[in-house]
Amino acid sequence: MQILTGKEVAEKVYETLQSDCNAFVEKYGFPPTLAVILVGTDPASQSYVQGKKQACLSLGFGHRDYHLDAETSQDELLELIHTLNNDPSVHGILVQMPLPPHLDADLVIQNIKVEKDVDGFHPQNVGNLLIGKPGFISCTPLGVLHILDYYALSCEGKHVVVLGRSNIVGKPMASLLMQKGRDATVTICHSKTEELEQITKQADILIAAIGKPLFVTESMVKEGCIVIDVGINRVEDPSRKRGYRLVGDVDYEHVAPHCKAITPVPGGVGVMTIAMLMKNTMQAALQLAQ
Ligand code: GUN
């Protein structure tokens, strides 16, 4: 059984980004810059936003932090986005999700300039991905592709089962894998899927992205399957300093012995998401600076 350590893959990505960033600064005299907007105080979101800031700082990217009050109005948020859209020193704009319920996430995403949508959430970027002409690709599915490529795990002709149909992971993941060049046969399952276990057991590659801790058990996987665990779930654990530990959507301990290869949590897909965000920001900066 092979452990697919995202950390190792991310380190390689960061090495390349470091030299790309140095060359960019040398050429243009300013760094690729990411603006991150967080509305409210959700602890998980705060920790993700902090991780993105750290990545920017360690690579020498520029970073703008906007921590807005939970009561921020739709208009105030859109105004900030428009200001950043028109600021030539900002190349990537990310609004941390989820937003408080009074804000319309779809409208917010639609207002981010397509060329600065480093999350790949804008409908135009989503549509371009679907027709096989990707601009910015959502960071987590892009990270999964990088892991598969790094470990030379081909999807060609394989049955890939994606558990989860979110706009951020499940849908773009399925779309990427079925493209020409990847050539997987893709099945998407979700909370209403009947006979789930019978479908997941057919998977050569199983991608779990449903946000339910330890959901995938050993009876759901085929012997020799490749398992990619996208889940990052906090479960209470008083023995830990923080009072919780992170687990994936997969019951790693019991599933791993049956796998050909599997990603751990933490240290698997999660670390790749931020690496891909930095890669997208680099791409945005290069395109905008032309
Ligand atoms: N919330 C959870 N994952 C993500 C992500 O990749 N981007 C944004 N903006 N919000 C998230």
UniProtKB/TrEMBL annotation:
Enzyme Commission numbers on file: 1.5.1.5, 3.5.4.9
Lineage of origin: Bacteria, Pseudomonadati, Spirochaetota, Spirochaetia, Spirochaetales
CDD domains hit by this protein: NAD_bind_m-THF_DH_Cyclohyd (cd01080)
UniProt cross-references to Pfam families, sorted A to Z: THF_DHG_CYH (PF00763), THF_DHG_CYH_C (PF02882)
Protein name: Bifunctional protein FolD
Known function: Catalyzes the oxidation of 5,10-methylenetetrahydrofolate to 5,10-methenyltetrahydrofolate and then the hydrolysis of 5,10-methenyltetrahydrofolate to 10-formyltetrahydrofolate.
Domain annotation Tetrahydrofolate dehydrogenase/cyclohydrolase catalytic: ranges: 4-119
Family matches, as InterPro entries: Aminoacid_DH-like_N_sf (IPR046346), NAD(P)-bd_dom_sf (IPR036291), THF_DH/CycHdrlase (IPR000672), THF_DH/CycHdrlase_cat_dom (IPR020630), THF_DH/CycHdrlase_CS (IPR020867), THF_DH/CycHdrlase_NAD-bd_dom (IPR020631)
UniProt gene name: folD
Top-level taxon of origin: Bacteria
Pathway terms, separated by semicolons: One-carbon metabolism; tetrahydrofolate interconversion
